[in-house]
Amino acid sequence: MSERLRIENLYKVFAKDPGPALQVLRKGGTKDSVFETLGHVVGLDDVSLAVPSGAMYMVMGLSGSGKSTLARCINRLNEPSAGRILLDGQDLVPLDEKALREVRRTRISMVFQHFALLPNKRVIDNVEFGLKLRGVAPAERRRRAEEVLSVVGLGRWGYHLPHELSGGMRQRVGLARALATDADILIMDEAFSALDPLIRTEMQDELLRLQRTLNKTILFITHDFQEALKLGTRIAIMSEGRLVREGTPQSIVLEPGSDYVAAFTREVDRARLFDARSVMKAPAVLWRGSAGIVVGGPEGGFLLDQEEQVVAGLDGAEIARLQETGTLPAEQAAPICVPEATKLIDVARCYRADRSVGVIDEAGRLVGLLGAEQILARIANLPVQEREP
Predict the structure, then answer these.
(1) Which of 48, 142, 148, 236 fits a 20 to 30 Å CA distance from 263?
(2) Which residue numbers delimit the ABC transporter domain (predicted)?
(3) Tens digit of pLDDT for each residue in 156-175?
(4) Going from the N-terminus, what domains does the chain have, and what CATH number goes with each?
């Protein structure tokens, strides 16, 4: 996956002259030590990360961790004190005001926590606003605004004023305005945190739906770890202006790396986080014959054809008889198989005690096996038996 955004050794010190604070930080000083010695506030301390193209990249941490400062440095609402911000290889830090305005108009859009809508303008005028600043012709920006309003489910509300909409609908307008510009990067700064819980869940689901269709590169700022797990393809966790952990949601839950990160993971619903691929065992070949290949173990297995497509399921007793007699049962059961990305909670629903669950790839080939031990161990946060090579 190609890289869309790269942050390299980024610092932000809120001071007229950040030089002395940067020297302290580069010698191993902390946010607290800088404040105690110089009275300067450190927003970012040597942050480096890479955002893949098409990723939903979550940046999270407690209040004061630096996550929103990072978002505002990327589009230079806050001026970085040192470091580089590379968008498709172009460093945004040295850009002059004219070039920076062009980047904000065409390459980076932002969705704010409190909607930031123009209250006296109709919904469709709000959505058109960025296109108007870009100089897009009226007919074209109206067409684009109507298109994105339809995408976010507000096609009938374009000619209403913002106060006539619910909170969730107003946030959809903010999202539509950002999407209308078709920018390279969409920054969402605590975009759903002001919403009621039910509306917030609906907006999260809506964003996931839109992402499946649009495949945007999104940098999403949040203080909610459950939101980060639900939405994110990668998560960066910040503390005291520093990046303290970065990785996939699954890797962070399995290996937090510090007590600070572990505190976020304690209440995670692992059955909804981990998928079949993360715990499956490699299938062992038990028998080969003219009828195909049998893979599995004592608890059950599968009959495959020569292209490794699953033909039938076999229980433990059938496999034992096969190994003794070399003959398959006359009547074979339908296999129980799930795609690699199936969450464990859904695997558990189809599991049967007398059979293994097969894991198949996009082409329908068997790539792994699941038994109760693997499923329960991952859900209970116990060591899972390593997959065989």
Answers:
(1) 48
(2) 5-265
(3) 999 999 999 988 888 889 88
(4) 3-9+50-270 (3.40.50.300), 276-379 (3.10.580.10)
